Amino acid sequence: MILEQKKAIIFDLDGTLMDSMWLWDxxxxxxxxxxxxxxxxxxxxxxxxxxxxETACYFKKRFDLPDTVEEIKREWxxxxxxxxxxxxxxxxxxxxxxxxxxxQGLKIGIASSNSRELIMASLRSNGVADYFDxxxxxxxxxxxxxxxDVYLRVSDTLGVTPKxxxxxxxxxxxxxxxxxxxxxxxxxxxxxxxDQQGEIxxxxxxxxxSYDEIFEKTYEVLG
Length: 223
What we know:
- This protein is an alpha/beta fold.
- The chain is built from 10 helices and 7 strands.
- It has helices at 21-33, 43-47, 52-62, 69-86, 94-103, 116-125, 149-158, 172-180, 197-203, 212-216; strands at 8-11, 107-112, 134-137, 165-169, 184-188, 206-208, 220-221.
- Helix 1 crosses helix 4 and helix 4 (69-86) packs parallel to helix 6.
- The longest helix has 18 residues, at 69-86.
- The chain is globular and about 50 Å long.
- The two termini are 15 Å apart.
- The model has no long low-confidence stretch (mean pLDDT 96).
C-alpha cells in the first residue's frame, strides 16, 4: 500500500492539493499587460518549481520591470488573495484523505512554491488548515524546486527521516525535488500539467487522478 511504513505526508499546494493553477494565467496576462508584455509560451515551464521570490526575481529580470522584487510579490498577493480565499477548491477527495491520514496519526506538511499568505488563505477557506503540522515555502530555503531543500526542511521540522515521507506533487520539477530529497513521490493529475503526463509518470513512484484512489487502491504503481 502506498502509505505503508510512512510516517509523514508532504503536499505541494498548487495543482496538487488545490485546483488553483487556472488563476495564474489570468494574473500573468493582467500583470505583464501593464508593461506591454504578453506572457511568452515558455513562461510556465521556465518558472516551474521556482519559489515566490525566485519567480519575482525572474520576472523582474526577464521583463525589465520597474517594480522591486518585494513590490512584485505584494502585487501578486493582492491580485490573487480573494481568489485563494473564496474561489480555489481542494482537489477531488483531498479533504477526506487529509481527515483519514490525520486519524491514522501521520504527520502532515506543506512544501509549496507559493506565498505563505495565499497558502493560508486557501487552507482556511477550505476548512483544512488545522490538519497541517508544518507549512514551509521555497522562500524559507536557499533553493526552490527541483532542489530538495523545501522537502528536506519539512521532514526535518516534522522530525521524520526522508525515507519515511511520501510526497504529493503535480509537475516534473516538484517530483524531482521530492525524489532528490530521498522520498517516494505520488503524482497528482492536474489539467494544467496533463501535457507533461509522460514525463511525470517516468519520474514518480505512483500516479492518482483523485485522492479517492488511495484508499480504493486504484492508484497506479509506476516504475
